[in-house]
Amino acid sequence: MARVFSGIQPSGELHIGNYLGAVQNWVKLQMEHDCFICIVDYHAITQDYDAAALEARTLEMAVGLVAAGIDPERSVLFVQSHVPEHTELAWILTTVTPLGDLERMTQFKDKSQRQESILAGLLNYPVLQAADILLYRAGLVPVGEDQIQHLELVREIARKWNTRFAPGFFPEPQAQLTKARRIVGLDGLGKMSKSMGNTIGILEEPAAVFDRLKPAKTDPARVTKKDPGDPAKCNLYSLHQYFSPAATVEDVAQKCRTAGWGCLDCKRVLADSVVAHFAPAREKSRELRNAPERIRDILHAGAEKARAVATETMREVREKMGLLAAHMPSGVGR
Ligand code: AQP
Predict the structure, then answer these.
(1) Mutation test of ligand 1: which of 23, 183, 194, 242 has the most ligand atoms closer than 8 Å to its C-beta?
(2) Which pLDDT tens digit goes with each residue over 56-71?
(3) Residue 191 catalytic?
(4) Is residue 216 assigned to a domain?
(5) Do 140 and 176 meet the contact criterion of CB atoms below 8 Å apart?
(6) 106 and 223, same domain (yes or no)
(7) Which of these, 46, 181, 323, 324, has the minimum number of CB atoms within 10 Å of its CB?
């Protein structure tokens, strides 16, 4: 059974795009696979970020993941910076990664346009991602569509390292997508993404869900309440398909086509469906926030388990690359 690795940045709230595109898959896979779920804080610092907020965001991401169904007894849930071998392997992998491969990554091209001066960390992001996955010699990586190109590069990096130092040592990991491989943001402009502020958080308070939906883009043909719309052209209709019961989805489509109601009515029903779907997660998150030590303990235990695997991989990597083993001075430990 292939080992699973996946990660999420603590760059904002855990949103329904993360949930539908990746996290719900992790929850399923942990029933049958050895799963490593990592809060990738070293990735989150490759963009402009608020240092004063990062610690709280990291803890809140862990709360969100456990509330969404990640079971720390089944999955190894941990924070990337607690396992220094991630950055150690990343450095090693930069030595087999051509610069041109990094420069042609779509995410690098998009994000570098938003940076005043382009930082090397952003360019090297996919190498760190390769290290995250290869450190655990994972075979399966459940992600959203935006990560497919990075996964191809991870396979390429694994191939290059294997060819040079140890054929077959690193598996070439396969991506696993859900049906909701790309959830569009509420602004209708691009992918739902923490850094774009076009999200609905899974732990959002009920009233706030409707507030988020109010300005959301729908079928542009619906200018007034009297204009009929096409559900296939409405981003919110696709969210109904994930969160509303089948009878409601049908009713929503019919009322949209016949201008039987306005978009705001449709949004109210969607808000109710989203609120109902995440009610158990909200409840669980309250319990976790009331016992803050519990989350820190989960992350500590997760990092210990992750390190046990990571140190062994690095020992073998160093050996295969001809790096001199560290030697304890005589007398130490006697
Ligand atoms: N809109 C989405 N639809 C489907 N899957 C998605 N994922 C992210 N957005 C969508 C998947 O969620 C996992 C965690 O990814 P992330 O931490 O990079 O999430 P983000 O919201 O995209 O985060 P940021 O901070 O805003 O980063 P950028 O700016 O890179 O988008 C991944 O498996 C991802 O595919």
Answers:
(1) 194
(2) 999 999 999 999 999 9
(3) yes
(4) yes
(5) yes
(6) no
(7) 324
